[in-house]
């Protein structure tokens, strides 16, 4: 809703206003989401390293997670 200033310039194109670049916002959101996915994916790896299991069983645990 507040992507343009003044807000009325969203629906009234006769007003002079500036709007944010929605492509840049979408790209930034996608990059942040990808980074979050990798962080969430990597979190259990630290716990798996601490387990007293063979490397083969640890890899199986990583793949099944």
From TrEMBL:
It comes from the Eukaryota. Pfam families: Fung_rhodopsin. It is found in: Membrane. InterPro entries: Rhodopsin_dom_fungi (IPR049326), SAT4-like (IPR052337). Residues 1-60 form the Rhodopsin domain. Keywords: Membrane, Transmembrane, Transmembrane helix. GO terms for cellular component: membrane. It is a multi-pass membrane protein. Belongs to the SAT4 family. This is Rhodopsin domain-containing protein. It comes from Colletotrichum liriopes.
């Amino acid at each position: 809703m507040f992507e343009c200033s003044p807000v009325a310039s969203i629906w009234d194109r006769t007003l002079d206003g500036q709007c944010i670049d929605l492509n840049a916002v979408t790209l930034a959101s996608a990059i942040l989401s990808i980074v979050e996915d990798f962080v969430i994916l990597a979190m259990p790896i630290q716990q798996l390293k601490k387990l007293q299991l063979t490397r083969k069983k640890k890899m199986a645990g990583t793949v099944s997670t």
